[in-house]
Amino acid sequence: MKSQSGNKNAAQSFSLPDADVILFSDFFSLAESDQLFATLLADTQWGQGEIKLYGKSYPEPRLTAWHGDEGKQYSYSGLTLHPLPWTETLLAIKARVDEAAGVTFNSVLLNLYRDGRDSNGWHQDNEPELGRNPVIASVSFGATRRFQMRHKQRADLPRLDIDLEHGSLLLMAGPTQHFWQHQIPKTAKPVGQRINLTFRVIL
Predict the structure, then answer these.
(1) Which terminus of the chain has a smaller tally of CB atoms within 10 A, N or C?
(2) Residue 46 within a domain
(3) How far apart are CA 31 and CA 34, in angstroms?
(4) 136/122 Cα distance (integer angstroms)
């Protein structure tokens, strides 16, 4: 995984055991981010799936869309997603992200957090179709939301909190998904809409 993109801002690496995590705070410029947010919000076929937790079904606490190469379906929490075709906007974003990560991604999960009540609970991106040490590239547009990470086995390690800002890119690679969980918690603070794109390689 590369440590620097073509943008003017260098990456910030986090000193975490059992993980490889890098943040580009201003991966996309403000003007680019504003335009991409508006386009994605208007053009994406947003839906709300039903997930299964502890044997019960619940509506996902956010809206989602799955795009990717033909046949690259993805399953999590009892939900199976079949890819919509790539759009010109998604391919343009992917080209930039591919270059920074040194990976050719073949799929992306889009998440729309409508307000502070929308969230994503503690989990790992460790589904079998992602392979042994998946690279996950997370792009954020819109309102800043708090991204949290915790080690699964070491209670002595403090939780890591990262504010994912408008136009940022977070890369997680190596053994990260085996040892660390992450979430976007709910917040009672007034917060606007946020769109998050998590690029993946489906084997």
Answers:
(1) C
(2) yes
(3) 5
(4) 16
What's the chain's Rg over C-alpha atoms? 16
Q: Tokens 């943040």 map to which residue? A: 23
Tens of pLDDT, residues 131-171: 999 999 999 999 999 999 999 999 999 999 999 999 999 99
Residue 2 lies in a domain: no
User: With the C-alpha atoms ordered 177, 71, 49, 94, is the resulting torsion angle positive or negative?
Assistant: positive
- Domain of residue 186 covers 12-200
Asked if the structure places residue 7 within a domain, the reply is no
| Residues 108, 87: Cα–Cα separation, whole Å | 11
Give 162's strand partners: 147
pTM of the entire structure?
A: 0.92
Question: What is each CA distance from 46 to 58, 61, 81, 94, 131, in whole angstroms?
Answer: 17, 13, 13, 19, 27
Q: Can you read off the two tokens belonging to residue 199?
A: 């690029």
Task: Check which CATH number belongs to the domain holding 146 and give it.
Answer: 2.60.120.590
Instruction: Summarize pLDDT for 47-100 with one digit per residue, the tens.
Output: 998 877 777 888 889 999 999 999 999 988 878 899 999 999 999 999 999 999
